[in-house]
Amino acid sequence: MSESTKVRAGGRTVEVHRPDKVLFPGPGLTKADLVEYYRSVAPFMLPELAGRPLMLERHPDGLDGPRFMQKNTPASYPDWIHRVELAKKGGTVTHTVCDNTATLVYLADQASLTIHRWLSHAARPDFPDRLVFDLDPAEDDFESVRGAARQLGELLGELKLPSALMTTGSKGLHVIVPLDGRAGFDDVRAFAADVAGTLAGRDPDRLTTEVRTGERGGRLYLDVQRNGYAQTAVAPYSVRPGDRAPVATPITWEQLDDPEVTARRWTLTDVLEQAETRPWSDLPARGRALGPARRRLEALK
After folding, report:
1. 0.90 exceeded by the pTM?
2. What are the φ/ψ torsions at residue 194 (nearest 5 degrees)?
3. Residues 184-207 pLDDT 10s
4. C-beta of residue 269 within 8 angstroms of C-beta of residue 85
5. CB atoms within 10 A of CB 19
6. Hey, which of 1, 140, 249, 294 has its CA 20 to 30 A from 266?
7. DSSP of 54-110
């Protein structure tokens, strides 16, 4: 097994240790495969990461070994990697920020399979510019997810809020709403909870906002808990720790109707073709304010 190799990434040379280490035993995908994937997907992924604090899901020995979640940036990370120190209860955390391809490759070398991002930027950490609904089915049943996404998309349309879809690489979908970044996390989460409550009220037999798993009665959970300070959501084009190396993948609303599209449709080996279609290109460059949407929501009640 090679001890290390060097990879050119965005004007820097990054050393990759144990490139032949198998991270995904099923398909036999190695750390070198992970590094090459993140290097290749960087043009599509970096705009979704730039300026945002991150939490890293690391699997140093692959899927068969231990997993740990990393918020604090180790002192051993090179000084060219951007960091930001942010408040937490009782102290601070120094988060990694990924603004360039070299950082993305370095994180892959650290066996960071999945990258979770804040919904706000480091420059304005208290003011999210993304709102996320996580559609979480009771079972591994993507048809229920598909139906809930259509219902949520229709409601967001009534509120005149543009939205985007992303497969999670697990069981569900994220529905993402771009915001103008003027409302704080408390207001955003309260609004998201009201939207979810309205939607569940329209279809109480299939949808729920019940946090307790045992009380959901087999219904799909409309999860809005990620819309809080220091909470994170899986970043677009992140690899997930599944057998085939599934990837959290942006899709169009039209693709939601494709029976071949599921939560784990794309993997590390084939997602680049989907990324090259730029499925979120129709989203407006500027996010929406919450005020008008909240007034429209109140009018629906």
Report:
1. yes
2. -65, -40
3. 999 999 999 999 999 999 999 999
4. no
5. 21
6. 1
7. EEEEE-TT-TTS--EEE-SPPTTS-TTSEEEEEEETTEEEEEEE--SHHHHHHHHHT
